[in-house]
């Protein structure tokens, strides 16, 4: 599970695109996002489940998502 900072990873709700050195920051944030996608793809290819949580998200909601996923995987295994 990753917790992504709203600024650094370009959260759709809170992303701010600084006007000063705009190009530098835009490249920086977009590069982070591309790396996130690449990391997700590599982990999923290895059979990992990837959960990304924005730093603005409620911790209890995030924990519920993790729990739901774990339970879903467990019930899949039981049906095998
Ligand atoms: Zn956010």
SSE layout and pairings?
Blueprint: E1 2-4, H1 22-45, E2 52-54, H2 59-78
Parallel strand pairs: 1-2
Bound molecules: zinc ion.
Write up what this structure looks like.
This protein has helices at residues 22-45, 59-78, and strands spanning 2-4, 52-54. The chain is mainly α and 80 residues long. It has a single domain, classed as VSR Endonuclease (Endonuclease, Chain A, 3-Layer(aba) Sandwich), CATH 3.40.960.10. Strands 1-2 form a two-stranded parallel ribbon. It is elongated and about 55 Å long. It binds zinc ion (ZN). Residues 6, 11, 13-14, 54, 56 line the site of zinc ion (ZN).
With helices defined by DSSP (H or I, 4 residues minimum), what is the helix count?
A: 2
Strand order of the largest sheet: 1-2
The hetero molecules present are: zinc ion
The number of domains? 1
Distance between the termini: 26 Å
Q: Give the class-level CATH name.
A: Alpha Beta
What is the assigned CATH homologous superfamily?
VSR Endonuclease
Mean pLDDT: 92
**Uncertain ranges:** none
What name does the CATH topology carry?
A: Endonuclease, Chain A
Helix and strand succession? EHEH
């Amino acid at each position: 599970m990753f917790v992504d900072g709203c600024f650094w990873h370009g959260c759709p709700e809170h992303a701010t695109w600084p006007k000063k050195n705009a190009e530098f920051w835009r490249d920086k944030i977009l590069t982070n996002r591309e790396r996130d996608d690449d990391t997700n793809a590599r982990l999923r290819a290895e059979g990992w489940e990837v959960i990304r949580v924005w730093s603005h998200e409620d911790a209890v909601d995030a924990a519920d998502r993790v729990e739901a996923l774990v339970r879903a995987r467990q019930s899949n295994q039981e049906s095998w």
